[in-house]
Amino acid sequence: MLSLFQILMLILDIVWFFIIAHVIMSWLINFQVLNLNQQFVAQIWYMLNRLLDPLYSRVRQFLPSMQGLDLAPLVVLIAVYALRIILTNNIAAFY
Questions:
Q1: Cα–Cα distance, 45 to 41 (Å, whole number)
Q2: For the whole model, what pTM was predicted?
Q3: Pairwise CA distance, residues 60 & 2, whole Å
Q4: Are 83 and 5 in contact (CB under 8 A)?
Q5: Tens place of pLDDT for every residue, the chain, 95 residues?
Q6: Which of 80, 59, 82 is nearest to 15 (CA)?
Q7: Element (H or E) spanning 49, and its range?
């Protein structure tokens, strides 16, 4: 059962990394440090969008419109961190 706990924590770590990479990449694209006309950058950007859009779209349904400010990544990051806390506090259930 401990391996199940470790697999769940690994999945949450990967999701955390993808969200952070998506946020940083969106900033770099908006400040024109990265250009979507470059094929490699565009492939990474569209991959991250396709992976994270199902998470973000569910959160965006509940968030009010913020006139261009997207808080969905922040809410998903908080949810991932809360799941990590719940799992670590209940690790005894995995033994």
A1: 6
A2: 0.89
A3: 34
A4: no
A5: 888 999 999 999 999 999 999 999 999 999 999 999 999 999 999 999 999 999 999 999 999 988 889 999 999 999 999 999 999 999 888 77
A6: 80
A7: helix 39-60
